[in-house]
Amino acid sequence: MTEIDLEEKLSNVACVIKFITILDNSGKLIYGKYFTIPESEKQREFEKQLCFQVKNLNISPGELDIFNMEDYNVLVKIIGEIAYFIGLNEEDNECLGYSFCKIFEKCLGNLVNDNFDRDKIFDNLEKIIVMIDEMLDNGLVVNTDPDSLDKLISHQEEAGSKFISFGTSETTSSSGGGLFSSIFSGAKSIFG
């Protein structure tokens, strides 16, 4: 029996996301989830390069654009006070990447009522993290149904669940305590 290379098979039929990064309009990190860039100092340098590319290529707000950086095809869209970046391998299907971006933006818009202000994103950051975690499993796109994602997040809100996400490759930035203080206060209320 021959051994099947699952990663090779998946790359032929699926869109594998290598990273999702949300930056504010000044280039500061709001949220980042990386599946291939493990070291935090490299992540920040990588995010600076993303900002440089956006400025260098004169990417217009409101348009989904794509550029190549390092070994990635990077899809970017500037909306409101944020820009989101979604990275694919150079070999990945760009059409699937565009489809994922449209679904991601629709779900994000639903969470923030199409108000893409920096403060609105921060107010809903825990829900955004849950949404991304439900859409992706180690970079593999597993859920692209905006209605089921909305229901899942609404159900967790109604049940009084605390949104807590512990990911080794996730980074967030916030002023005024932010995600880490909400994790600890959420954990304190759950565990006493």
Structure description:
This protein has helices spanning 6-13, 40-56, 94-111, 118-123, 125-135, 146-158, 178-191, and strands at residues 17-24, 29-34, 65-69, 72-79, 82-89, 136-137, 140-141, 170-172. Helix 3 (94-111) runs antiparallel to helix 5 and helix 3 packs parallel to helix 6. The chain is globular. It has a single domain (6-191), classed as Beta-Lactamase (2-Layer Sandwich), CATH 3.30.450. The chain is an alpha+beta fold.
In short:
The protein is an alpha+beta fold and 192 residues long.
Largest sheet: 6 strands, antiparallel
Radius of gyration, taken over Cα atoms and rounded to an integer in Å: 17 Å
Kindly report the spatial arrangement of strands forming the biggest sheet.
3-4-5-1-2-8
- Apparent shape: globular
| Helicity level | 40-55%
Total helix count? 7
Low-confidence stretches: 163-169, 172-192
Number of domains: 1
Tally the beta strands. Answer: 8
Rounded to the nearest angstrom, the distance between the terminal CA atoms is 53 Å
Order of helices and strands: HEEHEEEHHHEEHEH
Given the helix and strand composition, which structural class is it? alpha+beta
